[in-house]
Structures are given as structure tokens and as C-alpha cells.
Records
---
Amino acid sequence: MMTNTLPAGSSIKRALQIHAYFEQQGADVLIHYPQENLCEYQGGWNDSKVARHLDVPATTVATVRKETFGGLKKYEARKAERASLSEQINTLELRVTALEGFLKGLSKQEK
């Protein structure tokens, strides 16, 4: 469902044109995973290529695509992976800090 968050200078007419294009082209251009609220481009298509094809701003294509079909699957997967890696890094940093404290304690005991 489209909301009123189109980029400045975009019109409802353009948004409907983009939505209709995605619907007409179907899986040749964009695969939609409604359960995940995600999608992915096929055959070398992307927001910029659709924008050039329809002669509309890429930001408008991205907004309509995201609001209608969801975020890009690859991007969302990378975002989740980065969050997981960040959590692992934080855990490792805490462990290193704890080990440093332990080693300092051992060092003081030897003196």
C-alpha cells in the first residue's frame, strides 16, 4: 500500500505508473515475497534501470517499490548480517576486556 511519502516533485500519477509497470512485468523484473515484505530484482533490473525505462526519478521508483513490495531482499539480508556481526564483535570486545583484567590481576600476583 502506497503512503504519502513520495520524494519531493513526485506525483501520484508517476507512482501509479511505476506500480503498474511492476505489475505488468511481473517476475521478469521483480519477485515479491509478501510473507517477508521483501522483493528482489531479476535479469539485471534495479531501481535506476526501471527509472530510466520509465523516465522518472530513481528515488520515486525506490519509494514505490519499497512501499508496495517491500525492501530489497539482498539489502535486508546484509543489514541483518551486519547487525549479527556487530553483536558478535561487541561480545568479543567484552571478552577481551575481561581477559585483559584477568591478566593484569595475574601480573600483580607474580610481583
---
Amino acid sequence: MTDEAAAARLCALVFSKGKTEGRFVMEVEELTRASDLPQSLLEPAMAWATERDWLWIRLDYVELKAAGIHVAKASMGYPVPPD
């Protein structure tokens, strides 16, 4: 699995959890468990997504940014507007 594919999977997991106080957020520990990715894939995927502004990592939480929401929807088969 590429870093991009793993990062898209992480975005989809955070998105599928739903909004908390108006934001798509998930605890890093919860995301780690839900992803079933080994640490050797998880850390590079999170770094890759952060570098591309798909998500923020804040203390113990991961929050989707607008681009991450777009990626999550696309990877889950939701209709998304063209770029």
C-alpha cells in the first residue's frame, strides 16, 4: 500500500466517524486501532497527509482539513465536484 492510499484510508476513517463539535476529528489512538495499519505504514501515511494539508495532528487528535474531507469522500465513492 502506498503512503497516498494509506493516507486516503485514514481520511476516510476519520470522516466516517462523523463530526464532533462541527469538526471531523478522531483520537490518534482510536485511528491507530481502527486503521489496522502497522506502525511502519501508519506514521508515513499520517506525515504524507499532513504535508498535503489533508489533516492536522493536534496533540492526541487528528482533524480533517477541507482537502482531507474531499479525499475521504472520493475514496468512499461519494460524488465530489471536479477540481
